[in-house]
Write a structure and sequence with these properties.
The protein has a five-stranded parallel beta sheet, sandwiched between helices. It has a five-stranded parallel beta sheet with strand order 7-8-11-6-12. A two-stranded antiparallel sheet has the order 9-10. It is globular. The protein is α/β, with parallel strands linked by helices. The chain folds into three domains: 116 residues, Response regulator (Rossmann fold), CATH 3.40.50; 150 residues, 3-Layer(aba) Sandwich (Rossmann fold); 135 residues, Helicase, Ruva Protein, domain 3 (Orthogonal Bundle), CATH 1.10.8.60. It is 46% helix and 13% strand.
Amino acid sequence: MTEQILLVEDDPSVRTTISTFLEMEGFAIEAVSNTRDAIQRLSENGYPLVISDIYIDDRTGIDVLMAARKQDPNCSVILMTARGTMETVMAATRNGAFDYLAKPFELDTLLEAVRRAIASREPAEDEAEPEEIPESEMIGSSAGMVEIYKTVSRVAPTDATVLIEGETGTGKEVVASAIHYQGRRRDKLFVAQNCAAMPENLLESELFGHKRGAFTGADQDKKGLFDIADGGTLFLDEIGEMSIGLQAKLLRVLQESEIRPVGATASKKIDVRIIAATNRSLEKEVEKNTFRQDLFYRLRVFPLRLPPLRERRDDIPLLADHFLRKYTAEMNKPVAGVTPDAMAQLSSYSWPGNIRELENEVQRLVIQCDAEGFITPDLLAPMVRKVEGLVGRIAPKKGTLKDMIEEVERWLLTEALRDHNGNKTKTAETLGITREGLHKKLAKFGM
């Protein structure tokens, strides 16, 4: 029997492309352009599978999702959007969406999701009441960020220990906070501690607390962060900097769910979710015997890698706009915006300091810029302006910001491949991306 699919997409070209492709794959497609028609069709016919854009008209794909699941709890719904956010992914997950795809995507990716949806269809459990989704500070709508949102939405409702891996400045604490506030512990405290910020003896006291008289200067009992975070989440940043001695005590907490303050004779049970983060390779630290292997496995129950900003350049304009609004509000200094040339240069820079470096740059730009004026290329920091001549030589004289960025990216890929005589592994290393990421970019530009 031919599988019936309802497609909800307001863009005529996208609607036609998807419909034609899936029909060629043997599916029966009924396509509509708005949520009103979609919900009406669902009430009249019902469909085993629905594919819907998120942002359509005055209602959203979440409304389509809820209508489809209300009509048939076994209906599989695949949502897609070019403007993914943590909130929409969480709403999609909590309301039973089968998958969430970031545009643009390969048609084969959609086909794979459709086939998985058909293969995995099972009787649905009773639907829970929709919950209010706490606002997240995670920003970005690139495919890489949508995957992060999906991962967070899966792990947040659990109590699994999470290890967030990523370069300095990629937003590890923001992601840890999102995991906490999207989970069942969100009404309790989220407590963060940088393990590299203090020496071992002080860090032990800070984490586990101490009893009066435990050491010189301990003139009263002190609660540790594990105690303070009881019932909530403790985020341990730069966990790779923790001493071997403290690692053993942290391992005991993970194994026994109890702590012993410095100078205490008895242990105390605690209920704390641990999220750790590192900018190092803990596997390499284990090999060097500077990090306990048993602790590594305990922490890495659910690993989550954050991509550096250079791997998600499409998000740079969104982040820059966010920080622009933040600092113009803080300084009470209106700025007209960022010129296309300046934004193209921001998007072309490699940002070794990642999101933190971009935020600092935008803050400086707001200070430098005249009130009501535009941020222009001459205001950019010298290391960002290094790409100025490149953008001028390569970017098209006319076209959108996206067109300019893509032309620069195409040129960089071509030059890097030429420098390494077509060796893709070395090219990927030079560009600071994975080999898989390089292949995707080459495919994107037909190279």
